[in-house]
Amino acid sequence: MTIWKLRGGGRTVENREYRKVIEYVKNEIKRGHIHLEDKLPAERVMAEELDMSRGSVREALRTMENMGMLESRQGSGNYLTGNLNKAFQESISMMFLLKQVSYSEVNTLRRAVETEAYTLAIKNISDNQIKQLKEVLESMQTVEIDELILRDKEFHYQMIRASENHLIISIMDALEEIYAASVEHMLRSVSEQTKNKLVLCHEKMLDCMIRKDEDGGRKAVNEHYDLLESCYHRKK
């Protein structure tokens, strides 16, 4: 959680006004007064109830918006969105730019999460989602590398959605920007043989999903990430 801090005399003091606004919104959610996509009370109302200035409430709401908790709509007000993966995505992107994390580390995290997502997807995937994955896979057979990168992204997007686990979906969404860049980085100059291996990994994933072969599917997911890792290390 982002908090403002004042340093002095060897002490760190949290901005209590910011926390008051956070707690106010949380309590309104607990009481059932505010739901996802609902409009929050006006700044004036919150200022009166919390005994704060409207300026302090406004600054707190702006910080909450930056964190993805709410959305400010011009001329309408503030709405509860719960898009917290926005803050996570920005943090990961900044860490990557500052070289605190690497492509390889992002892929390691995605490998672990996606392996579990695959297990859930086998249980929850619908016939329509299977059909969509088949269509994506078929299109991967004949495209050039630029289009293959997009099809790879779409395949994994559909598979992760089929897990129906909202936390996994949020984590993978937050990692998507760097993951897409890493796949492009790794596959930009691969051979036709490597391209065919990549397509084969997706074929195995889908086949095992249709047959409900959890062990085989998890193995195929790992083969996919092993291939990406080998491409990454060749490009270093």
TrEMBL record:
Gene3D superfamilies: GntR ligand-binding domain-like, Winged helix-like DNA-binding domain superfamily/Winged helix DNA-binding domain. CDD domains: WHTH_GntR. It comes from Aminipila luticellarii. One of its GO terms (molecular function) is DNA-binding transcription factor activity. Residues 15-83 form the HTH gntR-type domain. Pfam families: FCD, GntR. The lineage of its organism: Bacteria, Bacillati, Bacillota, Clostridia, Peptostreptococcales. This is FadR family transcriptional regulator. InterPro entries: GntR_C, TF_FadR/GntR_C, Tscrpt_reg_HTH_GntR, WH-like_DNA-bd_sf, WH_DNA-bd_sf. Keywords: DNA-binding, Transcription, Transcription regulation. SUPFAM superfamilies: GntR ligand-binding domain-like, Winged helix' DNA-binding domain.
